[in-house]
Amino acid sequence: MPIPADWPTTEAEALAEQERLRPLVRSDGAGGGAEGGGDDRLIAGVDVAYDDDRDLVVAAAVVLDRTTLAVVEEATATGRIAFPYIPGLLAFRELPAVLDALDALTHRPGTVVCDGYGLAHPRRLGLASHLGVLTGLRTLGVAKTPFTFDHHEPGPARGDSSPLTDPATGEEVGRALRTRPGVKPVFVSVGHRIGLAEAVETTLALAPRYRLPETTRHADSLCRRALAAAASPAPDVN
User: Whose CA is closest to 116, among 221, 22, 186, 19?
Assistant: First the structure.
């Protein structure tokens, strides 16, 4: 998996690219997955695992049937880490591998769920939004923490939610969503071509039994297994 030749290599280049792409984000669901060439019956999860000592990154893409949540297809991509660790610029570390994993699929999902943020980002271009703009797919972010944003604890019942807000502007950038009764919430934000209400509804539908959506659970497990295999020394055949 080669890193694209024009991929940003410095913080200044990455910041400029985020500013360029941000106006292209659509925070509505008009057009459906078909507009981006995807099948609305399918939904995918993507996730990434690293081995910094070996300069390895593995991305996984897992496609599920939206109705049954059964796995339809899965793919991985392994390569070198594309960008240094800088908060707010993690997409530049992860996206080359994620794009390769998605390209390896034979099915094109109507929606992609990212383990991270979309508009809930200082420059309103987290990985989910960045991925959506680059691919044209409908995307959303489901994160485990609120990053730098504020929220009040949602009610204790499944489906309870509260606004996730930018403390600097008061803008609502997502929702803190309770997917399991009495279990800490997840943090949902728009990626691209989806509204916030639909992103919340989609997350709930994908989390019938656990805190995290099934898309994320499957993709996380797959990328960790693939990273372990990639980092293992080759067997001695002599």
Answer: 186
Say how many residues make up the chain: 238
pTM for the whole thing?
0.93
pLDDT, tens digit (0-9, with 9 covering 90-100), for 85-131: 999 999 999 999 999 999 999 999 999 999 999 999 999 999 999 99
d(CA 113, CA 124): 17
Do residues 127 and 95 touch, judged by C-beta distance below 8 A? yes
Task: Assign 3-class secondary structure to the chain.
Answer: CCCCCCCCCCHHHHHHHHHHHHHHCCCCCCCCHHHHCCEEEEEEEEEEEEEHHHCEEEEEEEEEECCCCCEEEEEEEEECCCCCCCCCCCHHHHHHHHHHHHHCCCCCEEEEEECCCCCCCCCCCCHHHHHHHHHCCEEEEEECCCCCCEECCCCCCCCCEEEEECCCCCCEEEEEECCCCCCCCEEEEEEECCCHHHHHHHHHHHCCCCCCCHHHHHHHHHHHHHHHHHHCCCCCCC
